[in-house]
Structure to design on (269 residues):
């Protein structure tokens, strides 16, 4: 079958999710250019490898040359001190979109996060039109990325699908993970739909499998025709049969961000 693209760029290839996605990306393009700041091994036959610090504007421009579309998973992927987040997730995002604009790349899929709205309560149903409520510096940086990508759509016509990724690990082991779980197969399908759907403009989609007890309403991205095949219910039998109630003042049970609320802010002047 003909693949949708000749060459795509995948940033963040050395990360936990990047390593798991790597072997699946050949479905999208003849050549997959993989990038990260650290060495992650040799290229396979259908791959190219470019080591790049997202904070280096010239290096980012070279990294993006000759690609048809970008899957941007690079940067800091958890709560951290502000300085590295600013370098990779703020400055790095600006460098990437300037390269995208100047090189005429028309489609980006941005790996955002559910932590952009982690301060909503677990009793809230959140959709893409509601104001972001980040639960830490990491979430704030992803809100910036979503806003920046919106600017490049409004101003220059660069199309972006921002995916607010849930808990994308092999298994769910607690209630929050059961609600937010995203299987790798479902993520691959969502990436494919985000790459090939015509006229996405600027879209925010929620990366979640077909789970029970949803916190997120994805109707504004329904035109992508993403239909998750998996569900966290397959792990329900592994959860404890007796419920241990947390302390009444445990904010991680009140807000969608969960344990990320205990991780920050981490600020060093």
């Amino acid at each position: 079958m003909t693949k949708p693209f000749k060459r795509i760029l995948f940033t963040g290839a050395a990360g936990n999710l990047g390593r798991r996605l790597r072997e699946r990306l050949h479905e999208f393009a003849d050549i997959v250019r993989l990038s990260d700041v650290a060495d992650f091994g040799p290229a396979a036959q259908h791959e190219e490898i470019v080591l790049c610090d997202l904070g280096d504007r010239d290096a980012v421009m070279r990294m993006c040359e000759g690609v048809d579309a970008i899957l941007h998973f690079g940067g800091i992927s958890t709560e951290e001190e502000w300085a590295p987040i600013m370098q990779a997730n703020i400055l790095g995002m600006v460098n990437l979109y300037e390269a995208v604009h100047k090189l005429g790349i028309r489609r980006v899929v941005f790996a955002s996060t559910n932590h952009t709205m982690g301060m909503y309560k677990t009793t809230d149903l959140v959709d893409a039109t509601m104001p972001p409520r980040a639960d830490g510096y990491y979430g704030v940086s992803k809100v910036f990325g979503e806003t920046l990508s919106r600017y490049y759509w409004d101003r220059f016509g660069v199309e972006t699908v921002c995916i607010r990724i849930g808990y994308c690990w092999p298994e769910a082991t607690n209630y929050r993970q059961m609600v937010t779980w995203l299987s790798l197969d479902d993520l691959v399908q969502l990436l494919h739909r985000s790459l090939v759907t015509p006229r996405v403009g600027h879209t925010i989609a929620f990366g979640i499998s077909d789970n029970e007890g949803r916190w997120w309403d994805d109707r504004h991205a329904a035109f992508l025709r993403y239909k998750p095949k998996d569900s966290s219910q397959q792990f329900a039998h592994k959860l404890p049969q007796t419920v241990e109630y947390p302390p009444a003042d445990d904010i991680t049970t009140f807000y969608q961000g969960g344990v990320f609320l205990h991780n920050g802010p981490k600020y060093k002047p």
Observations:
- The two ends are 54 Å apart (CA to CA).
- Residues 197 and 224 are 6 Å apart (CA to CA).
